[in-house]
Task: inverse folding
């Protein structure tokens, strides 16, 4: 069952097409990742799914409600974690949850009954009466996630939820998201961290320039779209080794600065050649989702 479905989505800003014929389907109780470089159309897609902006073409259904015509009703069952925290600095941790819950028409008694469990979920039980200025960035991000759950949503939209966090804070949030999935919640996640997408997501949609360019589970994308072995070759002589050997020993190769990436189905010959090159350092590893992402979208910097 698709709890969020979009077909043929198009959004134009002037002469620029930001989203171009995008299809998307989220199954209940799963985490679906929406991946793409900066400017690919991810945030615009989220805004259309939430009914904050209207598509120029296409159809959207969220929890069997048409969007944007019944977006307000749909949003009552959705939790949203935006890219940037927009907590109220004048309120305490608990007051942020209380005031936000009122936007959904919840009574104060209902909200206050939910706050302890949400604070425990976010690891903030001891901070309930503290002002935001006393919280670390990770704590604020966890509070933003807890706030998104105040209405007990069926679907949660997470727009880059762990950007700027240290590894410890990221792992705490991942643990919380896994708990939500175990409760049957449905999550739509955008992220630039490929390890995050690989760990959390059941399905992925990769877009670039507003168009869908790949979809499938992380394992399917890695198995079907990239060579299984990667050699990262470092040093001033990496380019020379590449010119002499890469075309013969690699199925595909890319030079990025002083690093040569050799992608191979059978890496043994390349490894044997590298053993005789003491001036070179190299790393042999299995391919991952980041390799797939870079193959699909390129290595050039996006602003």
Result:
């Amino acid at each position: 069952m698709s709890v969020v479905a979009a077909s043929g989505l198009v959004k134009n800003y002037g002469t620029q097409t930001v989203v171009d014929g995008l299809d998307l389907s989220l199954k209940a109780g799963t985490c679906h990742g929406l991946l793409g470089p900066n400017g690919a159309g991810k945030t615009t897609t989220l805004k259309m799914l939430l009914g904050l902006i209207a598509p120029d073409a296409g159809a959207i259904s969220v929890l069997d409600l048409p969007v944007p015509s019944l977006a307000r009703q749909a949003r009552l069952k959705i939790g949203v974690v935006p890219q940037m925290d927009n907590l109220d600095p004048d309120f305490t941790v608990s007051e942020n949850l209380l005031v936000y819950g009122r936007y959904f028409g919840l009574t104060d008694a209902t909200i206050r009954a939910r706050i302890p469990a949400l604070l425990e979920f976010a690891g903030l039980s001891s901070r309930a009466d503290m002002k935001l200025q006393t919280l670390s960035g990770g704590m604020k991000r966890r509070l933003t996630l807890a706030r998104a759950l105040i209405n007990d949503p069926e679907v949660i939209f997470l727009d880059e939820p762990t950007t700027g966090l240290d590894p410890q804070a990221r792992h705490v949030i991942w643990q919380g998201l896994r708990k939500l999935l175990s409760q049957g919640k449905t999550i739509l996640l955008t992220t630039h961290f490929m390890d995050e997408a690989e760990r959390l997501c059941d399905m992925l949609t990769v877009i670039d320039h507003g168009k869908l360019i790949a979809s499938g589970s992380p394992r399917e994308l890695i198995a079907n779209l990239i060579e299984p072995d990667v050699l990262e070759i470092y040093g001033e002589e990496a380019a020379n080794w590449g010119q002499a050997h890469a075309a013969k020993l690699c199925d595909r190769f890319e030079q990025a600065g002083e690093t040569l990436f050799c992608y191979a189905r059978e890496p043994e010959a390349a490894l044997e050649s590298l053993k005789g090159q003491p001036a070179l350092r190299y790393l042999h590893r299995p391919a991952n989702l980041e390799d797939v992402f870079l193959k699909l979208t390129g290595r050039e910097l996006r602003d």
User: Anything to note?
Assistant: Residues 167-182 form the longest helix (16 residues). The radius of gyration is 22 Å. Residues 93 and 127 are 7 Å apart (CA to CA). Residues 227-286 form a domain with the Alpha-Beta Plaits fold (CATH 3.30.70).
